[in-house]
Amino acid sequence: MKVLDTDFARSFIRMCNDGWTFGWHEANGGNASYRMRPEEVTEVRSGFRTRPWVSMDTEVPTLAGEFFMITAAGSHFRNVAHDPKRTLGIIEIDRTGTCWRECWGFRDGAHPTSELASHLINHEVRKAATQGKSRVIYHCHPAKLAAMTCVVPHDSAVFTRTLWAQLAECALICKEGVEVISWEVPGSVDLAIESAKAMEHTPVVVWPHHGLFVSAETMDDAFGIAHTVEKAAEIFCTARACGMPYTSKIADVELVSFSREYGLELARRNVYAKPYLEDPRLDAAFGKEPSREQRPSAKPEETPVNIPGAFRFPSVEPEAPSGAVPEVASEAVPGAVAEVPVETQAEAHPQPSEGWEPPVEASRVPVPVVPAPERPAQPERSQAEQLRQSVPEVQPMPRPELQPERFDRFAPPMQAAVPQHPVQPEPLSRPLPSEQPARPELLAQPVQSERPAQSEQPAEQPVYHFYPKPRDHRAR
Ligand code: 13P
Ligand code: ZN
Fold first, then answer.
1. Ligand 2 centroid to residue 136 C-alpha, Å
2. Active-site residue, from 59, 92, 115, 230
3. Which of 31, 70, 79, 141 has most ligand 1 atoms within 8 Å of its beta carbon, as the pocket-test mutant?
4. Which of 114, 205, 209, 212 is surrounded by the most beta carbons within 10 Å?
């Protein structure tokens, strides 16, 4: 059977094309890979060609002998459906998990994505985490999610809770939440390793100011997760940019009931850890009304300021008499009816874990809207300064201890060279391409038992890459 006639290839191409249609793949942005099933390999193997093995600067022993369909470096997703043999290819991992070779596709001198390390290392992590079920890794550049990384703290719990609070489906589809990693150079082994640490906890990783990195069992699932997360991000951005006061989101207790109803484990990763519930500044940053006790303490110079396109803070209104429905100051049309929060204790709601206390619940009662009072003149402050002051330092989320040494093998110390490969290259069915080889930094180096002295460093080789060369992680 021809590769392009198989279900997996059709599904892969459709995922790429849908991502392009959704606007997530500007230029060559994004990449994807699929770990083929043994029966799929058998089906198409007769059409494979044999190319030389290429050494990796990392090792993925549990992927030894696996085959992957993967996008080509620099390929534009808008071309995948039109020219799959150039924009895609299939690679095989050798028996040691340290080399790969091309078997199909990659026409006209194309090579696997510059994020090959991220894909392979993370396939290994997700394969283990899902008992072999996970097969797809999809990386896209959705704009609203990238925009969220400009205004929401890069804390996985805060980010997750914000996404879940926008859209019920997000908690369901992305029930393990997202992990937000630090910014890393695209295509670098650092990016691969940081993502792998995150993928120990969740299949959804946010690369700040870059994109989304998702793993799943099927192409439908991977695309569905990306679509849902981006939709929640779109709701977040749109609601804050529309100019109306931000008065409602899915409350924590509502998410907890949702979790109970659907058997989800929303609290498992400590997303509702107390600091987030009790910190008035963080609540304010996410649009929650400050409690009555908190309001008087707000000094004039601490009064938050709305920033166009970023968080919108509720107006500070005079305290309502106890028991009365408070009038809310609003920037909406006078006389309109808005829904405003009224504090009640949600004692009836379930608690996700021992020691967890239910948050202050907001029920919604329609009240007449009155015009907002004049704001006191604010001193000029930069947007960055306003954000810094409005969003507190967030405590790191407690989580199981990582064992960094487990990731060491992904970045081995100055490795000699690729040892003599146990599998002798098969005779080539056609001549080697004369063009520049793929990522020569990954190719075999002369055998050295130790790191060479500075003066003995080999001359810089010409490099095939679309991004700055990853820094030498082996030097760490
Ligand atoms: P490639 O074209 O090498 O796949 O890179 C695109 C990308 O999005 C890198 O993060
Ligand atoms: Zn990218």
1. 16
2. 115
3. 31
4. 205
Is 183's C-beta closer than 6 angstroms to any atom of ligand 1? no
Residue nearest to atom 10 of ligand 1 (CA): 186
The rounded average pLDDT for each run of 10 residues, N- to C-terminus, in the chain (476 residues) is 98 98 98 98 96 92 98 98 98 97 97 95 97 98 97 87 90 91 94 95 96 98 98 94 84 79 65 45 52 48 41 35 34 34 35 42 42 58 56 48 62 40 45 43 39 42 34 33
DSSP code of 422? Answer: S
CA of 462 to the centre of ligand 1 (A): 19
What is the strand order of the sheet 360-371 is part of? 328-330, 360-371, 337-345
186 lines ligand 1 (CB under 6 A): yes
C-beta contacts of 322-329 below 8 A and 24+ residues apart: 325/365, 325/367, 326/367, 327/367, 327/368, 327/370, 328/245, 328/247, 328/367, 328/369, 328/370, 329/370, 329/371, 329/372, 329/373
pTM: 0.65
Query: What is the pLDDT at residue 252?
Result: 76
Of 273, 117, 97, give the one whose Cα is nearest residue 194. Answer: 117
DSSP, residue by residue, 460-471: PPP---SSPPPP
115 is catalytic: yes
pLDDT of residue 250: 85
pLDDT score, position 368: 46
State how far the alpha carbon of 471 is from the alpha carbons of 28, 59, 195, 453, in Å.
Answer: 22, 18, 17, 18
Separation between Cα atoms, residue 81 and residue 18, nearest integer Å:
10
Distance 368 CA to ligand 1 centre (A): 52
Residues with CB under 5 A from ligand 2 (ion): 211
Q: What is the pLDDT of residue 265?
A: 64
